[in-house]
């Protein structure tokens, strides 16, 4: 699955004749049914043992068997990376578990995010002013970019560029450089120079990880995405 696919969750597969599901032992079946019932959320091994009401050695043996039969998979839960978390192979992790499109294998993909930020900035710089739809289409048609992104994802990236003073959000007045953009429509203009000596202005968030995190609008003190649990923010504080 591409890490840029939108919310996916249910990718159900019907059991086929002679499929591994048909050959499960009683204990494997109990455990598989518990895991599969959690769909795209999955389940932690300790919760799994409580719900299945099976001894630890039976659970561990059944888990290995189900993995060998490719009926379940271990996934990274960004909220508790140290815990073993399992999910039926017919599902993809929800955003609450995987972190969404900006995460890769349980970690914020900062390299990819920054590459996309720079590409968006260059496209707006070339046009001078552009709408969200235009930027999205330009990114998706870029030859060297082999993944499709949504308008929502590009909007999150553009928001980080605004915070960094690389671009600014404006509304079209329908004249001059806005002639091709409907009156009142929100669009984005490149901020070329600023400050002293003609150097580009540095945004207030430029030096901290929040400045490149497209999920910052979802970040709350006690939420799934939170400064309390963000390893990148903690590393910045320690530095």
UniProtKB/TrEMBL annotation:
Swiss-Prot/TrEMBL GO biological process terms: transcription by RNA polymerase III
Key words, A-Z:
DNA-directed RNA polymerase, Nucleus, Transcription
Where does it sit, as one GO cellular component term?
A: nucleoplasm
What's the protein here called? DNA-directed RNA polymerase III subunit RPC6
Family membership: Belongs to the eukaryotic RPC34/RPC39 RNA polymerase subunit family.
Source organism, top-level taxon: Eukaryota
Family annotation (Pfam families) = RNA_pol_Rpc34
What is the stated purpose of this protein? DNA-dependent RNA polymerase catalyzes the transcription of DNA into RNA using the four ribonucleoside triphosphates as substrates. Specific peripheric component of RNA polymerase III which synthesizes small RNAs, such as 5S rRNA and tRNAs.
Query: Where are the annotated coiled coils located?
Result: none
What is the species listed in this Swiss-Prot or TrEMBL entry?
Salix purpurea
Entry-linked InterPro entries: RNA_pol_Rpc34, RNA_pol_Rpc34-like, WH-like_DNA-bd_sf, WH_DNA-bd_sf
- Cellular location of this protein? Nucleus
Q: Region Disordered: start and end of each range?
A: 1-21
């Amino acid at each position: 699955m591409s890490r840029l696919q939108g919310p996916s969750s249910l990718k159900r597969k019907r059991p086929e004749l002679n499929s591994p599901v048909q050959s499960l032992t009683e204990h494997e079946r109990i455990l598989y049914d518990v895991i599969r019932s959690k769909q795209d959320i999955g389940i932690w091994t300790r919760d799994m043992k409580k719900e299945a009401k099976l001894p630890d050695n039976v659970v561990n043996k059944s888990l290995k068997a189900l993995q060998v039969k490719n009926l379940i998979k271990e996934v990274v839960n960004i909220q508790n990376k140290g815990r073993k978390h399992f999910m039926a192979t017919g599902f993809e992790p929800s955003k609450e578990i995987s972190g969404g499109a900006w995460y890769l294998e349980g970690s914020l993909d900062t390299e990819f995010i920054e590459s996309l930020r720079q590409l968006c900035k260059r496209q707006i710089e070339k046009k001078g002013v552009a709408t969200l739809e235009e930027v999205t289409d330009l990114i998706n048609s870029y030859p060297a970019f082999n993944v499709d992104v949504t308008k929502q994802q590009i909007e999150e990236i553009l928001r980080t560029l605004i915070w960094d003073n690389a671009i600014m959000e404006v509304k079209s007045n329908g004249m001059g450089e806005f002639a091709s953009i409907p009156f009142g429509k929100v669009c984005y203009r490149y901020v070329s120079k600023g400050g002293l000596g003609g150097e580009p202005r540095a945004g207030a968030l430029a030096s901290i990880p929040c400045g490149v995190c497209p999920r910052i609008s979802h970040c709350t003190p006690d939420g799934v995405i939170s400064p309390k649990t963000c390893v990148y923010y903690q590393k910045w504080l320690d530095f």
